Amino acid sequence: MTTVAPVRTGRDAPPRDRLAEPGAAPRPGRRGALVPALLLLLPVAAAAIAPGLVAPFDPFANSGPALTAPGWAHPFGTDDLGRDLLSGVVYGARTSLTVAALATLLACAIGTGIGMVAGYFGGLIDDALMRFTEFVQVVPRFFVALLVLTLFGPSAVTMALVLGLMSWPGLARLTRAETLSLRGREFVRAAEALGGSPAWILRRHLLPHVQRPVLAVAAPVATGAILTEAGLSYLGLSDPNAMSWGKLIQTGQAFYTHGWWLPLMPGAAIVVTCFGLALLVEGLRPRF
């Protein structure tokens, strides 16, 4: 006598991973990372956009006794010249985040363009662009930026350009992989059959599909730019007329035995910003 295997209904079928289904809602744990990310990044963004409204004092003016410990009058304390450290950190956010934003935008533009062209055309164009991408990827960007800033002088714009020109290879490889997966799709073939030019197809049909994963990777690029900018500023290669987090750490290290807060506060600002960007990526990952 043969037995018939029971047919599973939707009620007793094993659960499926909802993230594997198109349009599925993200997991609550990852979606919950957006809230702490915004709580960390919104104050930093406000300081970068409108430092004059957030900072209580002029960061370059004497506002109290030198080396005053953190308190009600000066929440982050004062430095060796009596300048309010909170105001310095707030104005430093504008410099550090401006460099990171410009470098990230430039890297996204270059990486997306090169990756889409390489993935769509393939062949010799793909090989040449990928070999060039690999060459740029192995060049240490910190030392390139160090050399350029030493030759041409410290400037926030120069620093952003160098970091942007050296940070795009990972974005190019990601964009190329996405373009390769889309190149044979029906909507691309239909656009080609209708006589659409490669530039029009890349801009109209492929760019909307590749920009979402690129945006998800942009936050780690910005994190790397913030850390590199801080390292270069620590070495004295930042704009001498502007505050930056790395410069504050550099000036505070000489007084850390008498003023532990001097290197701690700008360092904490860097950690909080980078951690907030990491949480932002984790929260947005299921949506991309």
Main sheet makeup: none
Number of strands: 0
**The CATH architecture:** Orthogonal Bundle
Range of strand content:
under 5%
Shape: elongated
Distance between the termini: 52 Å
Q: Give the C-alpha Rg.
A: 25 Å
What fraction, in percent, of the residue positions are helical? Answer: 55-70%
Report the mean per-residue pLDDT as an integer.
86
CATH class: Mainly Alpha
What are the low-pLDDT stretches, counting only 5+ consecutive residues below 50?
A: 1-29
CATH homologous superfamily?
A: MetI-like
Number of domains: 1
| N-to-C series of helices and strands | HHHHHHHHHHHH
Structural class: mainly alpha
CATH fold assignment = MetI-like fold
Structure explained in plain terms:
By secondary structure, the chain is an all-alpha fold. The protein has a single domain, classed as MetI-like (MetI-like fold, Orthogonal Bundle), CATH 1.10.3720.10. The protein has helices spanning 28-31, 34-49, 51-54, 85-121, 123-138, 141-152, 156-166, 169-183, 186-193, 198-234, 245-253, 261-284. Helix 2 packs across helix 12 (261-284). The longest helix has 37 residues, at 85-121. Mean pLDDT is 86; it is low at 1-29.
